[in-house]
Structures are given as structure tokens and as C-alpha cells.
Amino acid sequence: MGLPVYRIAIKDKDLKQMENHIWSDRFFPATLSNGNGSPQAIRIRYRGGHTREYPKKSYEIRTSRATYHFNAEYDDPSLIRNALSFHFFNMIGVPSPSTQHCVLQLNGVNQGVYLRIEAVNQTFFRVRKLPARSIIYAVNDNATFDLNNVSTNTPKTSLFSGYRLIKGRGEDRLRLMRFIRNIHAKRGKTLEKYLNQRLYMDNFLTWLSGAVLTGNYDGFRHNYTIFEYRKRKAYGFLPWDYEGTWGRNCYGKEVASNLVSIKGHNKLTGKVLAYSANRQRYKEILEEILASSFTAHQLMPVVRNMLRQIEDDVYRDPKYKWPLGMFLNEHNVIYAYIENRRRDIRRELQTL
After folding, report:
1. CB contact at 8 A, 193 and 185
2. What does the alpha-carbon distance between residue 42 and residue 62 come to, in Å, rounded to a whole number?
3. Cα 90 → chain centroid
4. Is 56 in contact with 322 (CB distance < 8 Å)?
5. Does residue 213 contact residue 341 with C-beta atoms inside 8 Å?
6. What is the dihedral of CA 272, 274, 279, 280, to 10 degrees?
7. Tell me, what's the pLDDT at 232?
8. What InterPro entries does its record include (predicted)?
9. Which of the residues 97, 204, 268, 335 has an alpha carbon 20 to 30 A from that of 308?
């Protein structure tokens, strides 16, 4: 039995407009059906950065009730790294998007295997009964909690550079800017107290553990979402875009298992881990995950099941980028990464 098939129908003139303006974020009307009931009206646009230039493009689709991202996963030979990462983050208690592999058809033409990803928005938090006062995406390399631009090392014109407010008001934007300013201005015990007040620390350290264990090099400069708990007025973190993980980078190149430091690499992780109490709690969380969730015994059955579910449709994917032999070997790449990464982290824990 193959993957579920999602069929998009869009007027030729609208599709041509999309194809001629790939960098536009304009939505176009279309319909979507998956064999269950009548086609539903949707709005559709391309999404992503450099991936918009690929022959297999990713889409954002909005219905009357929900928003989904249909990711091409073009640079990932396994097509499962995002899905596996979000599964893992949910295992360790960090709220993460639900996913579903599927086949996408556009005006009757097979586009190949896609990953349907739940959008992180108000609905995401409402379904999980998490009262989020604000939702902020880290959208580019400037989302490092630094005072300077990453590329030029000159002062930012706005400390909100690198971020996009998805839910909230101007005051929520100003509050994050004030938080960034304060973590650089405060020192010693004052900063330690401030960080523990303004961060949901267990969530932050567990998110950090997930990013470090999966090896998402870009996960500290962007590829994360900040949300502010309404009652606690503290920031929480969750993952986004984890294609470059589990032994490959975001372009699909195999990389060393120790590419990502146990300390992460942005200004906030550095500030938090400067304090022994936070380092000790971080060690406890990592040790717990290493003993329970981040093991080949726990993860490889998930890996094999995901690969088995999509295998037949990968063979039929007209836009699959890689030699099929690479797909067939991906379980070995991921297995080796897990085993090597466990050794890396054990070694780094001794000097943290």
C-alpha cells in the first residue's frame, strides 16, 4: 500500500505566475483533495529560501482551518530527517510539528514524495493546550541573540533582525529586543536570575539537547521558534527545519558526527551554560536522553519503518535527486551517526 496522495488543482495562468515569480510570497487560489470527500478550497505559494530554485519545490498550503508545509526534502537522500527529528523532539518532551509523508500531484502530474508538516502557529499551541502569548520565528543567520550582524560584525540596526513575529503585537517584539539587550548588559548573579526568570529553563535545555544530539548546525542561528508562555512570561523553544541532521548537512553532504559542539553556538547558549547550575541540569537532561531516547534500540525501528513506508514511492519519484543506492543505504548512515554521536557526547560531558 502506497503513501496517501494529495492532489492540487490550480489554474494554468496562476501556476505560470508562480513559476515566473518564484521569490514571491503571494498566495494563489487552488483546490486540494486526498480521496476523502470533496476537494477543498486552498491558497498556495512556494516556500523556502534557495530551495525555490530547485526542480522539486516546497509549498505552503492554507485551508480554512489549518496551514501545512509540503516540503520536498530535496537535499535529503533519506527524505525522513525532518520527520525523524520532530519525532525525536516529541519523544524528549519538546513540542514539535506532526508530519506525514505523502505523494503530491499538481494538475495531475506526479511531483514525488513530500513531507506534510504542521505549521507552528496559534492552532499548533491551542491543540497542545499551551497558552502562547507570542510566537516568533528565527528566520535567518542573524537570529543568534547577538548585538552585531553575523556577516559584518557591525551593530544591528534592530535587535529584532533575524526574527519574524508570527503572533503578537509590537510590545512582544520590543520585549524580545529588550531580552537580547539585557542578556548582554547584565552580569553575574543578576544575569543568572534574569535568565532563569525569562527562560523556561528545562524546555530550553531540552531543546538544546535535541539540537546538539541530532547535529543541526544551523539550529542555533535560525531553524527554531520562540514562544512566550502567557502565564509564566518566559520564553520556550521548539525546532523547525531539521533536514540537515543525523549525519548529513542541509545540502545532503555526509558530515562528521562531532560537527556540533555540546554547547551549541549562539550567544544565548553561551550565557546560559556559563552558570554551573545550568550546566549541571543540562548534563542531567543529556544523560537521561542518552539512557532512554537517543539510542539505536529506540530510534532505528522508527527509521526503518519510515524508510519502508516511503520506499516504493521514492522509486517512482520523478524528481528524486540522488542515486537510489544512497536511499537504500541511509539506514546505515543514520545508525552510524547515532552510535558515533553517543560517543561524542559522552566524551564532551566529561569536560562540560
Report:
1. no
2. 6
3. 12
4. no
5. yes
6. -120
7. 75
8. Spore_coat_CotH_CotH2/3/7
9. 97
Strand ranges across the sheet with 224-229 = 163-167, 132-138, 224-229, 235-239
Closest CA to 298 of 78, 90, 88: 88
Pairwise CA distance, residues 328 & 238, whole Å: 31
Q: Using an 8 Å Cβ cutoff, are 94 and 239 in contact?
A: yes
Q: What is the dihedral of CA 322, 240, 140, 29, to 10 degrees?
A: 80
pTM: 0.95
What pLDDT does residue 86 have? Answer: 98
Radius of gyration over alpha carbons of the chain, in Å? 21
pLDDT of residue 233: 85
Residue-level length of the chain: 352
Helix (H, G, I), strand (E, B) or coil at 167: strand
Under-50 pLDDT residues of the chain: none
Is there a contact between 314 and 111 (Cβ–Cβ < 8 Å)? no
The residue to which cell 560537527 is assigned: 259
Three-state SS at 143: coil
Please answer whether residues 234 and 135 qualify as being in contact, where contact means their C-beta atoms are separated by less than 8 angstroms: no
How is 233-252 classified by DSSP, letter by letter?
A: --EEEEE----S-TTB-TTS
Res 1: pLDDT:
66
Enumerate residues 6+ apart whose C-beta is below 8 A from 270.
263, 264
Q: What are the cell numbers at 54?
A: 530547485
| Amino acid (1-letter code) at residue 125 | F
Residue 258 in grid coordinates: 562531532
Q: Do residues 127 and 65 touch, judged by C-beta distance below 8 A?
A: no
Closest by CA to 109, choosing from 48, 57, 73, 46, is 57
